[in-house]
């Protein structure tokens, strides 16, 4: 099956898989699909896909995940990388693939109700207003018991025995939780955490070049001053497995952002 990758979340650690990132995207007909679990950084270089790249994968229903879009990759070594979709002509090709052949949701009550009935767990959402970017201090380290479990499994050779793990280092935990506060088309306010790999990588790059004190401000400038104020912002929302099953009040988090430039009159012709 061909899948256009549009979502990679920041990795979490797993004693079974070592490190996991939720991957999601669109089939050729525009419908959502979630590919999980995938230990992205343990994939061979020839299987490490980019966002907005078509891949070909063999998949099967994920029997351990009842969410309707969830599938598992049968063999990560068989992932084939195909064409990348660029940003030419004001993101025209990406706009067509992301916004075409699917409903763009604008109401929180609607998507939460659909999730509670297990009809959806992934949506493209257009907020009526994003009015705040929030950065909150978080625990700076992964839980020690999970780290120890992973290290023990590595020593015993239980994790991906066909992979060379000698130089592999677990992705550091982000020391901040980043969120958007926004309103939907009914004026309902919500605060959702941003779990995109992109925001995590941006933070680490900013910390490296500007230092920890300025890193958060640089991230805020990108996600608020740029994406919110100068771009045509859409949010990729996804439910977490735990809160989906438990039918939480709002089971969604922000798993990605789509921020094409505003269309100019010239781009319409």
Task: Explain how this protein is built.
There is one protein chain. The protein contains six helices and 15 strands. The chain has a domain at 104-138 and 174-269: OB fold (Dihydrolipoamide Acetyltransferase, E2P). Mean pLDDT is 89; it is low at 157-162. Helix content is 26%, strand content 31%. Helix 4 crosses helix 5. It is of the alpha+beta class. The strands form three sheets. Strands 1, 2, 3, 4, 5, 6, 7 and 8 form an eight-stranded mixed beta sheet that branches. Strands 9-10-14-15 form a four-stranded mixed beta sheet.
Provide a short characterization of the protein structure.
This protein has 269 residues and is of the alpha+beta class.
Which architecture name of the domain at 104-138 and 174-269 does CATH use? Answer: Beta Barrel
- SS content category: alpha+beta
Query: How large is the radius of gyration?
Result: 19 Å
Structure annotation, total helices: 6
């Amino acid at each position: 099956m061909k899948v256009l990758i549009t979502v990679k979340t920041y990795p979490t650690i797993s004693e079974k898989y070592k490190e996991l990132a939720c991957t999601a995207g669109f089939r050729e007909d525009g419908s959502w699909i979630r590919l999980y679990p995938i230990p992205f950084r343990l994939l061979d270089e020839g299987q490490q896909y980019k966002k907005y790249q078509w891949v070909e994968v063999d998949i099967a229903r994920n029997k351990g995940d009842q969410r309707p879009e969830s599938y598992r990759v049968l063999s990560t070594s068989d992932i084939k990388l195909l064409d990348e979709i660029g940003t030419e002509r004001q993101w025209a090709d990406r706009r067509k693939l992301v916004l075409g052949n699917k409903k763009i949701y604008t109401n929180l009550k609607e998507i939460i109700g659909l999730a509670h009935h297990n009809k959806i767990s992934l949506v493209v959402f257009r907020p009526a207003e994003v009015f705040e970017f929030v950065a909150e201090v978080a625990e700076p380290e992964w839980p020690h018991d999970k780290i120890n479990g992973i290290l023990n499994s590595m020593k015993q050779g239980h994790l991906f025995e066909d992979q060379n793990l000698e130089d592999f280092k677990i992705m550091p935990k982000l020391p901040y939780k980043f969120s958007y506060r926004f309103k939907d088309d009914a004026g309902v306010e919500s605060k959702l955490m941003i779990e995109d790999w992109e925001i995590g990588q941006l933070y680490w790059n900013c910390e490296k070049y500007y230092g920890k004190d300025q890193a958060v401000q640089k991230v805020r400038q990108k996600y608020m001053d740029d994406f919110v104020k100068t771009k045509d912002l859409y949010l990729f929302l996804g439910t977490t497995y735990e809160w989906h099953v438990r039918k939480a009040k709002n089971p969604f988090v922000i798993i990605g952002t789509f921020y094409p430039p505003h269309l100019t009159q010239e781009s319409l012709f």
